[in-house]
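Async update (no meeting this week)

Hi team, since we skipped the sync, here's where things stand on the single-chain job. The sequence we agreed to prioritize is pasted below, unchanged from the tracker. I ran it this morning and attached the output directly underneath so nobody has to dig for it. Comments welcome in thread, and please keep replies under the output.
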Amino acid sequence: MQPYGNYPHYGQHPYQQPPYMGAGPSNGYPPFNYPPNPNYSYMPQYPDNREAPFIPPPPAGAGSATPRPKAHRRTATTPGAPPPVPLKSAMKSSTRKSTRTSAPEALTRQATYPPTMYNPPTIPRPPMFGNGSAFNQDPMQDFRPLHMFMVFSGNNELRIENILKPAMDELRASILPMWPDGVEADSQHGHDWVVKFRNNPWALQGPNAAIAWRIIVQLFTLFARRGFSFLATMNTGSPPPRLIFEVTPEDRTSQFFLAYFSQGGRRLTLIKPPEIIDDTLGSQLKAVLPRKITEDLVDDDLRVIEVKKRGGFGGAEVEPTYFLMHVLKILSDHGYNLVTTVPLGRRGPLGVRAGREMLVFRGSSPAET
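Output:
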C-alpha cells in the first residue's frame, strides 16, 4: 500500500500487510477444508507464530445449536393497570369459532328489519269473483260526489248523474208525484237516474204547462236546500247540455222563478214571479222606456211585458238587446240575478230547437224554519 504523501494528516500505516498469494503452506495461511463429518469438531491449525482465536464455550446445559434470542417484552410499570382490550378482529374470530363449535340449531330465516322499529303494513286480499262475499260488496259504496249533473232531454226525460240513493229517494217522493200524467219509466244505472214522464212536460204546452214550470223550480230549490248550488252549463257533445251543481253549504234563503222571451225577443213572460217583481217590473220599465212598453196579466201565474211595434210593417220600438239589458238591471236591483238558461224541447230537422229557453233567476227570501 502506498502512503498518502499528499495528505499530511494521514501518516503511513504502522502495520505491514503481507501480500496475499493464495492458500498454502508457502504463504503462512493453512488451507481450509470442510470436515467430512458434521459431528466432528474441526479446529483449524495455525502456524506456531500465530495464536488461535478465542471462542467462548457454550453455556452449561445448552445444546450444540445456537439458541434463538427471545423477543423482549416490556412489563407494565403502573400497578393495577387494566388488561389490554383485544382487537375487534380477534373478538369476531373468537365469536365465529364459538358459533361454529356450538351445537347445531334449527334452520331459521333472519329478519331483515328490527321488529320494534318497523311493522310492514298488511295488504288485504282483493275480492275475487270466485269468493262468495265479492257479490255482496258495492265497489262504489264510499262514493261521495262533489258535483251532480242535471239534463233535460227531449220533451219528457229527466236525467240526474252522480246522485246518491238518499237524494234519489227524496226526488222520487217529492218530484214524481207533481206530474199528474205519471211516469213511463224510472231506471237507475250505477249513480245515474233516468225518469221518463208521460205526455211531454218539457213541451210547455197544454193545461199542465204550469206544473212543468213548477217542477223545474222545485228541482233548483231542492238542490240548494241540500247543499248543491248551480255552477255552470256545459255541452259535452250530446245534444242536451248538462247543468252542473257543486257542493256548497246548505242554502235556506234562495228563491227561484222562471221567465222566457219570445222568438224575436220582443215579449217577456214571467212565470209566477215574486210579489215585489210582479208589482214593480212593469212600472219601472215604463219609466225607463216611456210609451214603448205594454203589460198584461194573463193569469195568476203568468205576467207578460211586451215592447210595442212601430207603425206599419216596422219592427219593435226598442231593440231586443236594449230591452233585455233594462230587464236584467231592474231585477238585479231587487236582488234577483240570472243564474242560467235551460233549453227545453227537442231540435227540429234543421237543428232549430222547437221548444223554449227558460231563464232561471235566483234571489233571497226569509230563511225557512
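Quick observations from my side:
The two ends are 141 Å apart (CA to CA).
The chain is about 20% helix and 20% strand.
Reply here if anything looks off.
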